[in-house]
Structures are given as C-alpha cells and as structure tokens.
Specification:
The protein has 300 residues and is α+β, with helices and mostly antiparallel strands. The protein is 60% helix and 12% strand.
C-alpha cells in the first residue's frame, strides 16, 4: 500500500513538473516573440527616423532651388531634376512617411496588447515584460515625435506648392510685361527707322508741292528746295537701317538730291556735277538721315 502511495505521489509530482515545464516553455516562447517584435519595432523606428532625415534634406534642397541659391552637401545631388520634379518627389515621400506612421502605430498597438496579455508569476520574467513595455512606450513617444515632424514637413511642402503658384504667377506677369515691352520697343524701333523718299521730275514735284524754287527772277533761275510742309503720303516709306540702296528709275538719266541729306555719307558719291545715276547707295544710315527723314531726288 505504501509503495503504491509513493508511486502516485511521484506521478503527481512528475505531472506537476511537466506542467510547470510546459508553462515555462510557453512563457519563454512568448517573451521571445515579444522581444523579436520589440527589435523589429526598434529597427522600423530607426529606419523611419532616417527616412525623416533624408526627407528633411530633400526639402531643404527644394527650398534652396526655389530661392535660387546653391545647394550644399548631399541635398545638392539632384541628378539633373527640375525644381518641379523635386517638389513632386518630396510630396510623394511625405505621403510614404504618413503610411509608415500608420503602419508603425498599428504594430505598436499590437505589440503592447501582446505584452499586456502575458501574466507570469516569475519575477524575472515580469521584469523583462516591464522592460519591453517601457521600450514600447518609448517607441510610441518617438513615433509621436515623427508624426509631429511629418506634419511640419507636410506644411512646408504645402508652403512650397503655394510659393510655386505665386512664382508661376509672377513669372507669367513678368513674361507678359516683357512681351509688351518687347512689342513697344519693336514698334518704336520700326517707327524711328522709317524714312521716306520720292523721285520725280522738277515739274511733277513742284506740282505736288514737294519742292519749291527759291530765288531767280521772273521764274528764271533759282534753287530747288524742299517745301516747308511735307506729307508722308507723297513719299515711299522704307526702313533706313535695312534699305540702304534706292534704285533710280531710268538708267539713261541723271538725278540730284535736293533735300538736306549730306551726300558724303553715300557709298557712291555724286559726280562733279553733283548728280547720281543708277542708284542712291547709303553707307552710313544714321548720319545720312540725321538731317531729314525725307529724301527728294529730282530727275535732270
């Protein structure tokens, strides 16, 4: 009887030992799982921290490009990207950061629930659980800080977008003003370069009131001179800087300039009788047309 009782006690002790061993193995497995989760979370938070640092550098590079300043260090490695492309990349990375924050927060909540579900009477294991729980709390603080940083980066990206819109509007305004100025300058240049000429016989030009005869007696003699008031519609308009040669209509006739231009600025000066044939060729437009924009050539 006594032997049987000892055997029963031994079996009960063995069963209790096996149960304790199984419970211990379960707790160790659970702690190992939580430890692995903790390490994974730490790595994830470190990776996200590096991601935030890189994003901050990219944002600094975009700000510098918007300001037209040279970009230093790694942020300068834009690989030929335009400011618009860099801004687009920063926006996408901010979105990715937001996604990472959501995933980290979800995993953090799961790990914390896992730690809370563990209950062990082993003092050492309770200490380990307390350390893991503290680590998870610390990671939560870091993630909250990263979320604050992400919100700041998002605000800065929004500011860059608004600044880009303002710059684009200013550029459009400047382009419009430049085009208007260019058009005005072109119009003014065209107007200032206008010159007028007329070629005709003495009789015709006098009849049109383009020239008059000064001096003489009883209609005899006298000197031909431009009329006091000349009408642009009586002349042919040319560009004095571009049209340097004016062809004379009749090759067998001689012509004389009776307006106030200085003939020494012609490429082919008049002959000894102060007459021209074939063409009026201007060598120095500025000087030739300086005295009058009206050129009057009379056929002899």
């Amino acid at each position: 009887m006594r032997k049987m009782l000892v055997a029963v006690v031994a079996l009960v002790s063995l069963a209790a030992c096996d149960k304790s061993k199984a419970e211990l193995q379960q707790k160790v497995a659970e702690l190992t799982t939580v430890s692995a989760q903790k390490d994974s979370l730490i790595q994830e938070v470190m990776s996200t921290t590096q991601f935030v640092g890189d994003l901050t550098q990219d944002l600094a590079a975009v700000k510098a490009l918007n300001a037209g300043k040279p970009v230093a260090s790694e942020a300068a490695e834009v690989a030929g990207k335009t400011p618009a492309q860099m801004r687009a990349e920063v926006r996408e990375r901010v979105k990715e950061l937001a996604k990472r924050m959501d995933e980290s927060e979800s995993r953090l909540a799961q790990s914390r629930a896992r730690v809370a579900s563990l209950s062990s009477s082993n003092t050492e294991m309770q200490k380990q659980l307390a350390v893991y729980d503290s680590t998870i709390n610390s990671l939560r603080v870091v993630i909250e800080s990263q979320k604050t940083e992400m919100a700041s980066l998002s605000q800065q990206v929004l500011g860059l977008q608004q600044a880009n819109v303002t710059l684009a509007q200013a550029k459009d305004q400047l382009t419009t003003e430049r085009d208007q100025l260019t058009s005005t300058v072109s119009t003014m240049t065209t107007e200032s370069n206008k010159a007028y000429y007329v070629i005709g016989t003495q009789k015709d030009l006098i009849a049109k009131g383009i020239i008059t005869k000064k001096g003489g007696f009883l209609g005899l003699g006298g000197v031909l001179a431009p009329a006091r008031s000349l009408q642009e519609t009586d002349f042919t308009v040319i560009d004095r800087m571009r049209d340097s040669t004016i062809a004379l209509p009749k090759a067998d006739k001689h012509y004389a300039i009776v307006s106030h231009q200085d003939v020494k600025y012609l490429a082919s000066p008049p002959d000894k009788n102060n007459q021209l044939t074939a063409a009026v060729k201007v060598a120095s437009p500025e000087q030739f047309w300086a005295t009058s924009k009206f050129l009057i050539v009379v056929e002899k």
